[in-house]
Amino acid sequence: MFRTALSRTALRNTRRYATSAPASSGSNWAIYLAGAGAAGLGAYVYLGQTPETPKKPIQEKSPLDPKNFVDFKLKKVEPYNHNTAKFIFELPEDQASLLPVASCVVVKASDPEALKDSKGKPIIRPYTPVSPSDAPGELAFLIKKYDSGNASKYIHELKVGDSLAIKGPIAKFDFKINQFDEVGLIGGGSGITPLYQIVEYALSKKDNKTKFKLIFANETEADILLREEFDSMKKKYPDTFDVVYVVTKPEKTWKGKTGYVTKEIIKETVASPDAGDKVKLFICGPPGQVAAVAGKKDGMKQGELGGILKELGYTSDQVFKF
């Protein structure tokens, strides 16, 4: 509109000059038009400028609290397979969780009268998020529903808009990029999430040189969680990531490993214990699998190293059980 007004003014001035006595020189007229055009162009450029978007301040604190439960609303539920779904909770002001790797959180019902044990105490369960630590505004969990799992059944009954009380992070292992030359990951069932957290974080770093080898055991092919993500990693990072799937109840079309995680599978997949402090093995899965592969945990403590890994000559310093 401002530019149009300037054009009309210039036109009126043109008519007035046409009925007046001739100017001593045409140069004044050219200068006038140039000035009017420059003014219009200047106004157009000025009004059309887009102000610089202010930079988002660096987030220094997680919206989670390691000492207190905080309620977070369920933003979305994405069905995954026959008994598992991804539950995405909303973080305030588009903040990231900033969870350290590797760590987990614990959850309980926001309603103090819901999800209690036989003694009336609140049921609290640990879960490892599958969303990246720097993902803005979201905290996602991949949760399998167990018939005997009160917490998992409760979470699966949540509706979008409902809240869940979450406390964390709870640090498990202080993982550093290129801390090891080779890392072996042995997981079973829904115990894959802490292992996924480590490998997803490491492979996302351009300077990562560590080679990761994952052995992932499940009952059936349909039970393999995050398979699409792992297969994608294998294609994207062929020099630093590989995965071996093991299924105990295979269909006729299954072409991978069958049975359980054995000494032979471990020997042919992960680095030898001879690598010393350059190799690390992370184990997470059902208690029976953990005990068979690396010995029982002692509550929250690591417990003595046992099972297949001890037989193969690994030391307790080379093994971590989630």
Automatic annotation (TrEMBL):
Top-level division of the source organism's lineage: Eukaryota
PROSITE patterns listed in its UniProt record: FAD_FR
Entry keyword Membrane: yes
A Gene Ontology term for the protein's cellular component: mitochondrial outer membrane
Listed name of the protein: NADH-cytochrome b5 reductase
Entry keyword set: FAD, Flavoprotein, Membrane, Mitochondrion, Mitochondrion outer membrane, NAD, Oxidoreductase, Transmembrane, Transmembrane helix
Occurrences of domain FAD-binding FR-type (ranges): 67-176
Cofactors required: FAD
Stretches assigned to coiled coil: none
Membrane topology note: Single-pass membrane protein
Similarity-based family: Belongs to the flavoprotein pyridine nucleotide cytochrome reductase family.
